[in-house]
User: Fold these one by one.
Assistant:
Number 1:
Amino acid sequence: MIGFDVTLLAHASKTRFGGGGVARVTREIAASLVEIPEVEIRLGTFLGPRWIQEAKLALARGEPKIGPSAMAPAGGQEWIFRFLNKFADDPSRRIDKFLLRFVLRRCRNLLDENWGLRGFDGCDLLHSPFFPIPPKLRNKSRTLLSVMDMIPLRVPQFCDPNFIAWFKKELIPSMGVRDWIHCISESARKDLLQERPDLDPNRVRVVPLAASSRFAPISSAQMDGRMRDRLGIPPGIDYFLSLSTLEGRKNLEGVIRAFLLACKDSRFKSHLVLAGGSGWKTEQIERALQGAGEQAHRIHSTGFVDDSLLPCLYSGAKGFVFLSRYEGFGLPVLEAMACGVPVVASNNSSIPEVVGDAGCLVHCEDVESAAERILVLDSDSSYRGELSAKSLRRAALFSWQNTANELRQLYREILESPA
């Protein structure tokens, strides 16, 4: 029996943005594992019964959907947590004395500690895609921890200090020298082993991610005409797309500068679409937008984009521009390629592993080279078609089924290896 933690999905269900890329990866891995007959999988949470209902709701929403039967039981104690939640957190309730509310919350937390991890009882191996595995569970079964990236240590200037502190004090020290670790790229593996050279490199394995099967080319005839209206993209214009959380690490200001350089060519008429919710440290992006001058009307910020609109948004673009300063994998690049969109991307961290020879790689700060690539893609339809075909072939090498099968093989190896 394999236990797979979906705590992050329970957390993500409470946010508008669904928890970002790691939550999407957690959902895709869980859904793919559930589909493999040879794997007996149990989904659960490290936070106990009061989060199980949230996790069930999260699994039933969005894509891919996962039925509640895959979830671990809460030990029959959900009613207690429903009662405690009802009175401990709702300020509209009559029980409003500070001390009583404190006691109720404390009771709930103690119950979590005692009952919360029982959903994983009987599991031979426990896989956590994000959170450190609690010591009580580490002592009961074999474990596998996924490490998505080393962003807080490699580029800390672009991270929330609270997340950096958690990463340093909780996640990194939780890894034992003989633990099995799953990394999503060779770059992430290299960075982890540099930070923790005491880890056994033979137990730090790479299993790459994939783009969802819904990311595929959409023809003009199939395009959802409402997509542009909903996202504020003018009808009839060609556009280059950059999709990511709007934060300093993603270097959106570099994308804007490259676009503005391309605009100096009078033959270049395309627009730029920046898609994604706002993140950490956006000041430089805002300054770049303010400096767009007479080209400002050609730059469109959509804000957060619902997953259902992404295939249309990608497919409608002439090219995808991604000048991130560091990635653990680079899922938006692969999604764009799966839609047959040519990419101009950074040549750092994991991005070359994803792009291969199917796109244009430039230094993330070399906006002149990025602008040149944008102009060539804009004007040369033959070159654009060549890169589109290469993108589709490259993206076909990645699938969530492959990811799940590789994880299944890794699970088997862990269970058969000496402790």
Number 2:
Amino acid sequence: MLGFEPFGRFGVLAEIGEAAVWLYSDNASFVTGHAMVVDGVRLLAWSVSGSR
């Protein structure tokens, strides 16, 4: 199953949490109305390869 992961590993909960914390921080104060995808580039790899 890891062979299908673009980074060769699964993400961990802390990585999702870090993205959420960043969105809540002052560092993201200029970010509005954005759906952030935290998937280890899986969506991009899927769209480039055309696989489903």
